[in-house]
Amino acid sequence: MTDAVPPPTAPERLRLTLLFHHLRVQFPRIAISRERFDVHIDRTVNIFNAKSETPVTWSSYLDGLYSLDWLVCVGCLEGIEAAWELLFAARMGRSDSLLIDALRARAVRLYPRNEEKQETAVTEFWSSLIASDSDHTLPVLARYDGQRPLAPWLIRVFQNWHLSKLRQHSGTVTLPDDDIAMPLPTIPQEDTRWHEVFVAAARDWLTAISDSERLILGLRWRYKMSQREVAHLLGVHEGTISRQTDKLRDKALEVIGGRLVEEGWAGDDIEQFILTELGGLLTDDPRLSADVLSRLLAAKGKTLTLAEPEE
């Protein structure tokens, strides 16, 4: 059993005090008491120490601490609403997609052509953030050590959890070690080629459609709004939205399908392939991000009052 990290020295205690006040000043909406701050920082330094190959000191731990990510995690564990808002608004890498959308995109890859399983996977993971799935495991957020960015770490845990389930097929599975980046299943080279052709064609199609069409696509896909809800929001007849939706679908099949055929596609299920692959691309494309859709709505003098869909 790994020994606990020794108590901080006087200079390290001063660093902890400065960190506490820095976080209070910089992020006053996530207000935790000094007592709870000390409890959580002691807990997380020992989580990190248990996984480290060399003994951890308070100085080395604080040197590598992602303080905002740590505070957001602690705030969520403490039930502070502002912390959950920041977590929901977390962005992922170059795509600038929301964390929830990045989880959906990963679920699409883990469970291709199974939309129900994709949705269930994300929903179950959100519920596990602060509630353990068994008596022998900690909630996901209670396992975060603060030594890496929070959102990418959550994606890794999500991936490893479901890969473990896929490989064992039955029984309750403990969340695997979050330090082990288990790779996604290998995609056959031929499938990879068709995916690359699809992505290039789909992005060309998204570039060619108008802002109004992109707005409808985003409202229908990201927010899962019905045609009636979209029509009400935009102040148009439901039949107009229905026709535009059909036009978008037909144009996507025409443009993307045409490119696949040009490249030599000879399968019989081209429509199913396109519609299945399109889900992951629409989830991750920054042109359909929440911010972009909000700007498109604002240009029409509209505001979306629905919250980002919960999973």
Please explain how this structure is put together:
- 62% of the residues lie in helices and 1% in strands.
- It is mainly alpha-helical and 311 residues long.
- Strands 1-2 form a two-stranded antiparallel sheet.
- A hairpin with a 4-residue loop joins strand 1 and strand 2.
- The longest helix has 25 residues.
- The C terminus is likely disordered.
Which terms would index this structure?
311 residues; mainly alpha; 3 domains; 14 helices; elongated
> Mean pLDDT across all residues, rounded?
81
Oligomer kind: single chain
- Calculate Rg over CA atoms: 23 Å
Order of helices and strands: HHHHHEEHHHHHHHHH
How many β-strands, per DSSP?
A: 2
Q: What is the terminal-to-terminal distance? A: 37 Å
Please give the domain count.
3
> How is the largest sheet built, in terms of strand order?
1-2
Shape: elongated
Number of helices: 14
Main sheet, how many strands, which sense, barrel?
2 strands, antiparallel
Low-confidence stretches: 170-188, 306-311
Task: Kindly estimate the percentage of residues that lie in beta strands according to DSSP.
Answer: under 5%
Q: What is the share of helical residues?
A: 55-70%
- Quickly give the structural class: mainly alpha
